[in-house]
Write a structure and sequence with these properties.
single chain, 399 residues, alpha/beta, Aspartate Aminotransferase, domain 2, seven-stranded mixed beta sheet, four-stranded mixed beta sheet, 13 strands, 39% helix, binds pyridoxal-5'-phosphate, PyrdxlP-dep_Trfase_major, cysteine-S-conjugate beta-lyase activity
């Protein structure tokens, strides 16, 4: 079946943060959103129809999430998509990805201690590290001609610091769209083992890998009691961010015990969402073709963006097409404008909301992040808006 990812859907006025929650982040309202990471693409009918069937049952009492259908569906997805054998006993429903990332941080570090991250970094990691009174310790990714690579020496030197106890790995990487190579991930694991650094690998973007080698999950490197938690879910892949459909995979017995005990007796958070569990079952059994076609659509949008920049804005912007995610990390250093000027232009002239670079970095930023999981028509509107914004900067219309 051929799916249509160019259908225009109207999410404004539906209490969707991308559209109706801009005030908290931007100086203007009613911007065309290219910022927060959810899609202007509908969740596929085979999921919606299944959930409607569940709604018809008309009861939503407390749920046993540990069901064979649920665990088998996850196992099936990993086997067929990533060629990994997951043990059902290692899978746990979790309230959210970020909750789980943060719980690893709280479990293995004390206030003031260091949490290693690769920069630029998914902004919520930075906020949560700071909010939990820990220190973000930076391993900066090195820009290359075709993306970014790990700075092994710097990474090892940061991992060896006495105060660094946890690495938050973003695999694949948001915001750069970097696909970590198997070799890099093995190196990361060896270095972390050497210095006793616990890894939480956030793999929420795993289904958007378009490189030839494909996605290498850290679950490949998991053994009994490995200091490793992998956390992921359906939120990005099937546009179900608000359904709380995340799960973790780990063989670390102490963390599992602590985590589940605290969910029940400390946070009071052990109830699972019926619709999320049902969505996992149906998406992971029937979703492969839809996800493949979605990736083709995203790849095409990335190419449109790349060609537009190369042909029309190469004096101002640099963009390397990422091998994963639907997020474009666009560099405006060549333009000579600072971030405040560029954002003012994008918002007041272009009337678009893009991810604000400095929220992903610990220093000054020369990037904006653009979510291109939308119709071609919307994307082209966004590209025109970017062009107009930089024209306004050139013409001195923005102070
Ligand atoms: C890398 C990454 N992790 C986690 C999340 C959010 O996950 P959750 O809503 O399940 O906490 C996002 C959303 O943008 C993300 O990009």
């Amino acid at each position: 079946m051929k799916y249509n990812f160019d259908e225009i859907i109207n999410r404004r006025g539906t209490a969707t943060i991308a559209y109706d929650g801009q005030r908290k982040v931007y100086d203007y309202e009613n911007l065309e959103p290219f910022w927060i990471a959810d899609m202007d693409i509908k969740t596929p009918d085979f999921i919606i129809d299944h959930l409607k069937g569940k709604l018809d049952q008309a009861h939503f009492g407390y749920l046993v999430w540990k069901q064979d259908d649920y665990l088998d569906a996850i196992k099936h997805w990993y086997k067929t998509r990533f060629k990994v054998n997951i043990q059902k006993n290692d899978i746990y429903y979790v309230p959210s990805i970020l909750f789980t990332v943060t719980e690893v941080i709280r479990e293995f570090t004390k206030e003031g201690e260091g949490v290693l991250i690769h920069t630029p970094s998914y902004n919520a990691f930075l906020t949560l590290i700071e909010g939990n009174k820990r220190t973000a310790v930076e391993s900066s990714l090195i820009p290359t001609d075709d993306g970014y690579k790990l700075d092994v020496e710097q990474f090892e030197s940061m991992a060896s610091r006495e105060d660094v106890k946890v690495l938050v790995l973003c695999n694949p990487h948001n915001p750069t769209g970097k696909v970590w190579t198997k070799e890099e991930l093995i190196q990361i694991k060896e270095i972390c083992d050497k210095y006793d650094v616990f890894i939480v690998s956030d793999e929420i973007h795993m289904d958007f890998v378009r490189s030839e080698e494909g996605f290498y999950s850290m679950t490949n490197l998991m053994q009994l009691d490995s200091s490793l938690v992998v956390v992921t879910g359906l939120g990005k892949t099937f546009n179900l961010a608000s359904l709380a459909s995340s799960y973790m995979i780990t063989k670390h017995r102490y963390f599992t015990l602590q985590f589940n005990r605290k969910l029940a007796t400390y946070y009071g958070l052990s109830a699972a969402n019926t619709l999320a569990v049902e969505a996992v079952k149906v998406a992971y059994r029937n979703g492969a073709d839809w996800v493949d076609q979605l990736n083709n659509h995203i790849e095409r949008n990335m190419l449109i963006l790349k060609e537009f920049i190369d042909q029309n804005m190469s004096d101002e912007l640099t963009f390397i097409k990422p091998e994963s995610t639907y997020l474009a990390w666009v560099d405006f250093s060549k333009s000579g404008y600072n971030e405040a000027q560029v954002q003012e232009a994008l918002q007041s002239v272009g009337k678009i909301a893009t991810g604000i670079g400095h929220s992903f970095e610990l220093s000054e930023s020369h990037h904006f992040r653009m979510n291109i999981a939308c119709s071609e028509e919307k994307l082209i509107g966004g590209l025109d808006a970017i062009k107009q914004s930089f024209n306004a900067l050139k013409n001195g219309e923005i102070k």
